């Protein structure tokens, strides 16, 4: 998609982003391929980083000559930067990456290994199976405005996360966290509903925010608009949603991962060609860019850049409206998955940088196991299922985000469905257009989009709670919430979440993943690899991450 990875925001008309590669589709592709398969054309991108995030403004601001300035890292982010910067309510790829440099959690996690380490807290919990954890705050921790970080700030932040209006980060905490209490000015206690060993890495999602700043009238709107006051190693110095956000090292930071350069300037460039150009050539302005199109990987390598991929939960999914016939019939949903020639999609659209899904979780995930139902390419089985369901002459309008790699995959879906007798029209469109329709619960049949819950964490419980949660927007979009199968799934997820024996927990996870695969309400077609490029002569300490954005907390100019 042309934006970051977004989740529906908790406003009246929710905004969200869901994924990387939010650049607009090339005109060549849209004319030759989209018009070939669709009767309608749309505009831009999907659930990834920002609604109008999918518009790339000026290519740079204040970074001319940055290539030779060793006190500055200039980065190119391939997602829009005009979505919420409120850490408790955003899934914007750009904002979440920036937030990780500006704010801290009690605990934070390494961006690649996802191992937790003490951030604002002084130590990791000693007993992961305890039903309450106490944390002492780092002595001398300060907000970027110079005020001290206190226990009141921690309680304030968690009250917002656990509040009734929080439909994003709250989903990752409310099932197991009862409350957060102040012990004294520098100590807090987290009280659990039951022992939850996975809570340690989960706490990185809860970026602590200053009460004296964000308890003021209108302050949450300012946070959404880009205001950021944290305790992290970098402070925000400018925020221009259509062009860039800049940072500088915070002299008052005394935590575990101090700033490694004096300044950073992050450019938002959604257009793929402009993004690649910004990092290309001997006089390249930027030293690093994420969201590199597969077609440009070898070109950049030949120029001496390092280009590496990260494999994870990044995926294209299909979501069905089960409130519209015949998509209320599981056989129809399964037939449309079996019909897709995934290997062709991987070879042609993803240039080999993908894997056909064999579970909701990606292969390589610690809890991955081939599901009881795997949608290997089987057009004859697809035809048989449609016949068994009594469905013939089916016509589908496939709504989609026109992020480049998603758009590249759409013709394969259309051709595959046409081959089993399903007439298919493609309707790619931008995030705002698509999700305004979804938020208004307008009628639709099938949606194709991208998502990556790894932005928030790695454990299976978190990944499933991104999409499958009682009362969640995705469940409302699919009109599956409240069904007997949904209630069964949620009960299975709750049981697994409360289990402390790891072997038994894994069994329960595999059981509910089998149900998710069988029902195919919102289910991956392929998992793909995200590509990051950087100049090793100018930057060291870079690791490509398997989710949108970048992390420069250990990067250095060379």
UniProtKB/TrEMBL annotation:
InterPro entries: Peptide/Ni-bd (IPR030678), SBP_5 (IPR039424), SBP_5_CS (IPR023765), SBP_5_dom (IPR000914), TAT_signal (IPR006311), TAT_signal_bac_arc (IPR019546). It comes from Nonomuraea zeae. This is ABC transporter substrate-binding protein. PANTHER family: D,D-DIPEPTIDE-BINDING PERIPLASMIC PROTEIN DDPA-RELATED, PERIPLASMIC BINDING COMPONENT OF ABC TRANSPORTER. GO terms for cellular component: ATP-binding cassette (ABC) transporter complex; periplasmic space. Belongs to the bacterial solute-binding protein 5 family. Gene3D superfamilies: Dipeptide-binding Protein, Domain 3, Periplasmic binding protein-like II. Residues 115-463 form the Solute-binding protein family domain. It is a lipid-anchor. One of its GO terms (biological process) is peptide transport. PROSITE patterns: SBP_BACTERIAL_5, TAT. Residues 228-249 are annotated as: Disordered. It is found in: Cell membrane. The keyword Signal applies. CDD domains: PBP2_NikA_DppA_OppA_like.
């Amino acid at each position: 998609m042309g934006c970051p990875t977004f989740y529906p925001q908790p406003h009246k008309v929710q905004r969200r982003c869901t994924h990387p590669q939010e650049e607009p589709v090339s005109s060549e592709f849209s004319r030759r391929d989209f018009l070939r398969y669709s009767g309608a054309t749309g505009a831009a991108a999907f659930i990834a980083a920002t609604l109008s995030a999918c518009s790339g403004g000026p290519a740079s601001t204040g970074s001319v000559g940055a290539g030779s300035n060793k006190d500055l890292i200039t980065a190119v982010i391939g997602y829009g930067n005009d979505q919420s910067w409120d850490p408790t309510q955003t899934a914007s790829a750009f904002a979440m990456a920036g937030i990780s440099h500006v704010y801290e959690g009690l605990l934070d996690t390494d961006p690649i290994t996802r191992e937790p380490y003490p951030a604002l807290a002084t130590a990791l919990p000693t007993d992961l199976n305890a039903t309450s954890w106490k944390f002492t705050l780092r002595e001398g921790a300060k907000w970027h405005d110079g005020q001290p970080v206190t226990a009141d700030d921690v309680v304030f932040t968690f009250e917002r996360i656990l509040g009734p209006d929080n439909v994003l980060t709250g989903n990752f905490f409310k099932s197991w966290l009862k409350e957060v209490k102040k012990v004294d000015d520098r100590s807090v206690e987290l009280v659990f509903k039951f022992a939850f060993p996975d809570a340690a890495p989960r706490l990185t999602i809860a970026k602590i925010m200053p009460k004296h700043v964000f308890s003021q009238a209108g302050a949450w709107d300012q946070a959404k608009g880009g205001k950021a006051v944290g305790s992290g190693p970098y402070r925000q110095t400018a925020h221009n949603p259509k062009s860039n956000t800049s940072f500088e090292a915070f002299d008052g930071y005394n935590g575990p991962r101090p700033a490694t350069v004096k300044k950073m300037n992050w450019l938002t460039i959604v257009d793929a060609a402009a993004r690649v150009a910004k990092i290309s050539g001997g006089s390249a302005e930027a030293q690093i860019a994420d969201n590199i199109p597969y077609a440009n990987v070898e070109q950049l390598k030949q120029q001496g850049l390092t280009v590496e991929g990260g494999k994870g939960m990044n995926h294209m999914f299909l979501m069905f409206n089960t409130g519209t016939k015949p998509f209320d019939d599981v056989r129809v949903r399964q037939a449309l998955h079996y019909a897709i020639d995934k290997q062709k999609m991987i070879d042609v659209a993803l240039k080999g940088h993908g894997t056909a899904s064999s579970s909701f979780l990606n292969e390589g995930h610690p809890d991955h196991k081939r599901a009881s139902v795997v949608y290997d390419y089987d057009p004859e089985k697809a035809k048989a299922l449609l016949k068994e369901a009594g469905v013939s002459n089916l016509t589908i309008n496939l709504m989609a985000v026109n992020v480049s790699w998603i758009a590249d995959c759409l013709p394969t879906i259309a051709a595959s469905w046409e081959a089993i007798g399903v007439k298919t029209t493609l309707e790619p469109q931008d995030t705002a257009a698509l999700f305004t329709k979804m938020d208004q619960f307008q009628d639709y049949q099938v949606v194709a989009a991208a998502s990556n819950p790894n932005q928030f964490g790695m454990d299976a419980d978190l990944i499933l709670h991104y999409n499958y949660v009682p009362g969640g927007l995705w469940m409302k979009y699919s009109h599956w919430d409240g069904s007997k199968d949904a209630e069964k799934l949620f009960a299975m997820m709750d049981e697994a979440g409360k289990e402390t024996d790891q072997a038994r927990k894994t069994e329960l996870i595999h059981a509910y993943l089998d149900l998710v695969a069988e029902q195919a309400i919102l289910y991956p077609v392929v998992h793909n690899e995200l590509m990051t490029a950087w100049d090793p002569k100018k930057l060291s300490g870079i690791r490509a991450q398997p989710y949108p954005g970048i992390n420069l907390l250990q990067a250095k100019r060379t």
